[in-house]
């Protein structure tokens, strides 16, 4: 079976079209069929009955072998022409010699010729119409002109061997089988073509479906990429906004001035239209808390608006009680108007946000907009809450400290004035006493009263003196504390690099020492990632270890090689610690670094660190 498969595939080349390779196989199969079932049997018949014609079937064997040879040497069209024309031509020659001098017609031979005449439809494709038409016309001419072919071998042959008996029946069956075989092969070729077409249609449908699925996957991936890009863009936007507000909080100590600058920045940054900041206040000598409007931006009057709001009164007071954001998208027309030179209109969205730190509300932020604020802008306002609350709380503490200092200075001045007044009174009393002593003892009762007043004044002087000593002691203690705090801050700024970063690693605070060492300005560093200082020699594994450590709530310490703005190198002993919120989760990171002045010492510590982590060069 293997040899028949090899004979069938002679001349097949993967570079040819599929239909060409199919026709090559068919031409090889036709050659094999003709040799086995026609040429060889007729050679035997000729040898037994008409030896004069034995050359014709032998020539058929040779021509069919040449079909294989031509296919092998890539003369595929010559091979197919040979397989399409030679069988009928040789059969016609054989038949014409049998017809000469005989009146009886060899029907079997005509049946075989009919089978051979349709071989061109088997070995040529309709796309090879030139070869097909030539072969069909040639076979037709041979078939109709069989009686006129030259007779060169015999004058008259005995037809009994092929017109009767067992051989006649066998040849008759062979001719019928030959016709059926060729017709079956034509039908099979048609079936294969239809099957191939159906498979192509199914393949195209599947490819179309796969393309649709791939297109959907690509669209989904594109949407995810765009979503990730938008989220990253929004996070950068939020980080930049927080950095700008933090920069403002460091420039102003007065809560009112800070409120004015902050509300203007917030309204413009979120593309809103109006805004106001209320700070929590309490009158001296009273326990009742209220919210007072400290600053507003483009704020028009609205129905029932007040500059002072009590706890629980209106939306501002309710926000104080609930300690949660109020988000309004359906605002009454008479609630507030946003005015411009062309007219006024009600807002579409109002956000009221508590400014809260450590569960204590320091103020309320109110923002009104024509458009509903997207989630990332609302998230920006939420993150501002704690930052602004801390700033306003520090401002209040500083303001109270300043007020107490001024009050203590004022009380000290009053005590000095009272002491001088008492001293004058004492001198006047002494003068009066001397005058009274020169008078009669009739004034003894008045003198006793004066002595009693003197005793009371003396006690008052002692109390005032004690108060003055206590105030002076407190003043000295406060000055000492302030001096110590100033000294510590100066020492830290002189010897230690300090920076703060949010949970994404974005710089939110730097001290003067970092500015001096890194050679960047404060504005160039705020809002940037700490990778700004990264030196190429630093392995990424150390940064990964650092992030894994601080994200797990632990302190990281290591030797780090950094690069300054001008390209110079500086070594630091870095300690980075997370700062936790009330729930015990990291809310930001504080980094403290000490500059290692000795290059050799720093390199040695760095190499020891790499060796400890298994990152030593060459490992």
Automatic annotation (TrEMBL):
It comes from the Bacteria. Residues 502-553 form the PAS domain. The keyword Transmembrane applies. Residues 435-444 have a biased composition (Basic and acidic residues). The chain crosses the membrane at residues 29-48, 54-70, 77-99, 105-124, 131-152, 172-191. Residues 554-608 form the PAC domain. InterPro entries: Biofilm_reg_signaling (IPR052155), GAF (IPR003018), GAF-like_dom_sf (IPR029016), PAC (IPR001610), PAS (IPR000014), PAS-assoc_C (IPR000700), PAS-like_dom_sf (IPR035965), PAS_fold_3 (IPR013655). PANTHER family: BIOFILM ARCHITECTURE MAINTENANCE PROTEIN MBAA (PTHR44757:SF2), DIGUANYLATE CYCLASE DGCP (PTHR44757). NCBIfam families: sensory_box. This is PAS domain S-box-containing protein. It comes from Marivirga sericea. The lineage of its organism: Bacteria, Pseudomonadati, Bacteroidota, Cytophagia, Cytophagales.
């Amino acid at each position: 079976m293997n040899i028949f498969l090899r004979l069938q595939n002679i001349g097949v080349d993967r570079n040819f079209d599929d239909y060409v390779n199919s026709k090559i196989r068919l031409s090889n199969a036709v050659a094999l069929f003709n040799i086995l079932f026609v040429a060889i049997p007729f050679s035997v018949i000729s040898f037994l009955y008409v030896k004069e014609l034995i050359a014709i079937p032998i020539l058929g064997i040779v021509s069919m072998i040449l079909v294989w040879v031509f296919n092998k040497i890539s003369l595929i069209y010559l091979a197919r022409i040979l397989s399409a024309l030679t069988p009928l031509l040789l059969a016609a020659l054989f038949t014409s010699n049998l017809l000469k001098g005989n009146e009886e017609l060899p029907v079997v031979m005509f049946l075989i010729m009919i089978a051979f005449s349709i071989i061109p439809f088997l070995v040529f494709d309709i796309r090879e119409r030139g070869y097909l038409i030539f072969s069909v016309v040639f076979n037709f001419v041979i078939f109709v002109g069989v009686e006129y072919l030259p007779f060169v071998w015999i004058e008259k042959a005995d037809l009994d061997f092929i017109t009767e008996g067992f051989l006649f029946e066998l040849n008759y069956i062979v001719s019928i089988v030959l016709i059926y075989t060729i017709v079956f092969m034509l039908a099979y070729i048609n079936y294969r073509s239809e099957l191939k077409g159906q498979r192509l249609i199914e393949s195209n449908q599947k490819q179309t479906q796969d393309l649709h699925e791939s297109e959907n996957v690509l669209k989904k991936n594109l949407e995810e990429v765009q979503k990730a890009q938008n989220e990253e863009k929004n996070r950068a936007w939020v980080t930049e906004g927080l950095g700008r507000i933090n920069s403002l909080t460091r420039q102003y100590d007065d809560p009112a001035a800070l409120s004015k600058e902050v509300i203007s920045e917030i309204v413009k940054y979120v593309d809103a239209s109006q805004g106001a900041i209320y700070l929590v206040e309490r009158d001296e000598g009273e326990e009742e808390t209220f919210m007072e409007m400290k600053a507003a931006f483009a704020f028009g009057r609205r129905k029932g608006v007040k500059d002072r709001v009590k706890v629980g009164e209106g939306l501002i007071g309710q926000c104080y009680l609930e300690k949660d954001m109020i988000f309004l998208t359906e605002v009454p027309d008479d609630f507030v108007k946003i005015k411009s030179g062309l007219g006024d209109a009600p807002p579409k969205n109002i956000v009221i946000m508590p400014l809260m730190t450590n569960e204590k509300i320091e103020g309320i932020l109110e923002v009104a907009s024509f458009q509903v604020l997207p989630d990332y802008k609302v998230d920006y306002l939420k993150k501002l809450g704690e930052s602004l609350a801390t700033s306003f709380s520090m401002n209040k503490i500083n303001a109270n400290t300043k007020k107490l200092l001024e009050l203590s200075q004022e009380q000290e001045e009053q005590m000095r004035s009272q002491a001088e007044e008492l001293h004058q009174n004492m001198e006047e009393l002494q003068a009066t006493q001397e005058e009274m002593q020169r008078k009669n003892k009739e004034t003894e009762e008045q003198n006793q009263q004066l002595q009693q007043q003197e005793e009371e004044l003396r006690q008052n002087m002692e109390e005032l003196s004690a108060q003055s000593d206590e105030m002076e002691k407190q003043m000295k203690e406060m000055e000492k504390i302030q001096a110590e705090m100033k000294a510590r801050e100066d020492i830290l700024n002189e010897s230690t690099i300090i920076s703060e970063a949010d949970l994404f690693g974005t710089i939110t605070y730097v001290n003067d020492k970092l500015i001096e060492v890194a050679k960047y300005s404060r504005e160039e560093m705020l809002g940037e990632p700490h990778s700004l200082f990264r030196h190429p020699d630093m392995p990424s594994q150390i940064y990964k270890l650092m992030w894994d450590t601080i994200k797990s709530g632990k302190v990281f310490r290591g030797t780090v090689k950094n690069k300054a703005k001008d390209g110079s190198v500086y070594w630091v002993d870095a300690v980075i610690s997370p700062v936790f919120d009330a729930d015990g989760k990291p809310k930001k990171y504080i980094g403290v670094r000490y500059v290692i002045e000795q290059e050799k010492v720093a390199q040695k510590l760095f190499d020891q660190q790499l060796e400890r982590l298994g990152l030593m060069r060459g490992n």
